[in-house]
What does this fold into?
Amino acid sequence: MSERRLIAYVHVDGVAYGPDDEIPAAVAKMIGDHAWADGSEASVDEGQGKTSDTTSPPPRTGRGSGAEAWREFAARHVDADLDVSGWSKEQVISVLEEAGVIEREQPKE
It folds into this structure.
């Protein structure tokens, strides 16, 4: 397992990993350096709360995975003329997948 800590949620092969997750070594090798916190886990500010990273998509489940978070993410990453207000989370995710902004979630085996 990796001892490094992520700064935000990332999706690898359809699986979401977050700052508090233990990342398998094989998965850690696929995550870019920009997604890791600098220094050791002990130096990370535990009271940090939300991250200012606007390039990573919200998680698909759990805290921060609501429709509003996905609509805000879509507004930053798709055509400005596309009005996603009122869309469900599933509708927004589908459009983002079709546009190639995010990877399709693979069914868990």
Residues 67-77 form the longest helix (11 residues). The mean pLDDT is 79. The helical segments are 25-28, 67-77, 89-98. The first strand starts at residue 10 and ends at 12.
